[in-house]
Amino acid sequence: MANQKHSSVATYIIVALILAVITYIEFAIVEYPQEWLGRNWTLFWLVALSVVKFIMVIMFFMHLKDDDRTYTGFFSSGMFISMATFVALTAMFILPRSVASTRPDNVVAGAASHEVPQDVLDLVETSGLSRSPAAQADSPRPADRSVQITPPLAGNDASSYEVTVPGGAPAQASGEAGASGDATAAAAAGSDQTPNEEQASEQAAGGTTAEAPAATAASWDAEAGASVYTANCVACHQGNGQGIPGAFPPLADHATAVYEAGGREFLMDVVLFGMQGQIQVNGMAYNGLMPAWGHLSDADVANVLNHIVTAWDGPPAGFAPYQADEVAAQRGLGLSAAEVHAMRADLGL
Amino acid sequence: MSAQPAAPAASEQPVPYRATKLPDVKLLMWVFLASDTMFFGSLIGTYLAYKDRSLVGPLPVDVFDIPLTTVSTFVLLMSSFLMVLSLHAIRQNDIPKFRLWTAGVAFFGSIFLGFQVYEFVHFVNAGLSIHQNLFGTTFFILTGTHGVHVTVGVIWLVALIMDSYLRPLGAKDSVYVEIAGLYWHFVDIVWIVIFTVVYLVEFV
């Protein structure tokens, strides 16, 4: 050891000065933002400067530069495993969040029509259907305009929804009862809330209008809704929709009732704008903050709303599935979380 | 202990196996630092995984004070500088200077801890407890663990100074100062990462 080469005091002083200067530069970059640099380059330089500091300390202060390579080997192994853990955590937690919002099936709301094959678009335009193009694209046979999705009679398993394509081989014999129920539901969602099947079919035939809810088939993408729910809602409201008593209100045994109490728009508002203020749910008081989820796409919001009002208590009476364009319109209201809370009081809840 | 009458001749006795000629304590310290790297890697990764996921405030931008943290970062960096001077002194058998620099390291480390205690108290007063939100939980676990490391380092350095009064220390003991220094510098580089990844990027 005595004959080992060691950095001189002069080297230490120079390294310390460089470290001090770099620390000041880092501070200055953040404290006096350089707009011309741009956000990504600023981040790059901050990380690069700290990497330089890191390397200088281990090379000169910890002597890895001149010391036995065994030490470097051990430390590098630890660093490697550490970085691998870091990458794995990033892949599990951060990537899914940024990828989810760009997934093709989430980019629905009208603007993303380039995702839909042209023949489907032609079909939609010529047939006068106002169903969203992507909903068409999701159908197993886009040419078939009368796809029915039949909710199961009981249970909350999203995968048990059956798709029945008239003309094709019936996927399941139970289609009949459910299909007629859906027709009623679609009609009931008309503006006057009158279950009038004639009126509904009239709108469906004539409608290129914005009266989307009544004109569209009573179908929704149950799996997409469940996946949006899993990605964004379960942390608080839990997978079974029971929430956490006293902290996060339940959706099961509640959301469907809110819908039936005339809360169709209110539910969209809660998701889009959040809600702040004390509420009572099933006899328990909650005074937290529902964050606004406006960063979700219109289609995601529609899907997740369809999920929460159907998954646990079945479709509400007179249910017309939420549609992306309807969410887009609601988004324009730009309410505050407190205003949403006031709306809840107006519903008598 | 193992001396037996029927033992084979000395030349035939197995030589104790050594893979390296490196000092054991120093190798052990590097192995420990490698494992500690994984520990802090996980904590920093967890902090980033839950970054921007807090549902309620206070959020980092509400409570962080960059000038203050820059000063404490600078103090910790300079303590590392004093640490290499301390090692240099004991290699020169210069015990008074060794005591001076080592005391300086422990003092700077204590100042850093003082900043951290001030920061934690300030955060809690601002409503950020470890229970408050994901930011509070991950932040306090990460920086708290780092603070514990600094505290252990300060105690270690004070013990080294006391040791120098209890028995004659010299260049032959420099490896014990060196491993304390390795530990100290490691705690410093962890903070270099935390300062950038936790504090600075929040304001970009």
Q: With helices defined by DSSP (H or I, 4 residues minimum), what is the helix count of chain B?
A: 6
Fill in the CATH topology of the largest domain in chain A: Cytochrome Bc1 Complex, Chain D, domain 2
Please, what is the CATH homologous superfamily of the domain at 80-204 in chain B? Cytochrome c oxidase, subunit III, four-helix bundle
CATH class of the largest domain in chain A: Mainly Alpha
Q: Widest sheet of chain A: strand order?
A: 1-2
The biggest sheet of chain B, with number of strands, parallel, antiparallel or mixed sense and barrel status, is: none
**End-to-end distance of chain A, in Å?**
79 Å
Low-confidence stretches of chain A: 1-5, 103-114, 124-152, 154-217
> What's the mean pLDDT score of chain B?
89
CATH superfamily of the largest domain in chain A: Cytochrome c-like domain
Give me the count of strands of chain A. Answer: 6
Number of helices of chain A: 15
Which overall shape of chain A is indicated by the principal axes computed on the Cα atoms? Answer: elongated
Distance between the ends of chain B: 66 Å
Structural write-up:
The complex is a heterodimer of chains A (349) and B (204). Chain A has 349 residues and is mainly alpha-helical. Chain A has 2 domains: 9-104, no CATH class; 106-346, Cytochrome c-like domain (Cytochrome Bc1 Complex, Chain D, domain 2, Orthogonal Bundle), CATH 1.10.760.10. Chain A has 15 helices and 6 strands. Chain A has helices at residues 9-31, 39-61, 69-100, 118-127, 133-138, 175-188, 197-206, 212-215, 222-232, 234-237, 255-260, 264-273, 298-310, 324-331, 337-346, and strands at residues 148-150, 162-164, 275-276, 279-281, 284-286, 289-290. In chain A, a hairpin with a 2-residue loop joins β4 and β5 (284-286). The longest helix of chain A is centred in the N-terminal third of the chain and has 32 residues, at 69-100. Chain A starts with 8 loop residues before the first helix and ends with a helix. By secondary structure, chain B is mostly helical. Chain B has a domain at 80-204: Cytochrome c oxidase, subunit III, four-helix bundle (Four Helix Bundle (Hemerythrin (Met), subunit A)). Classes of the chains: A mainly alpha (349), B mainly alpha (204). Chains A and B meet through α1, α2 and α3 of A and α1, α3 and α6 of B.
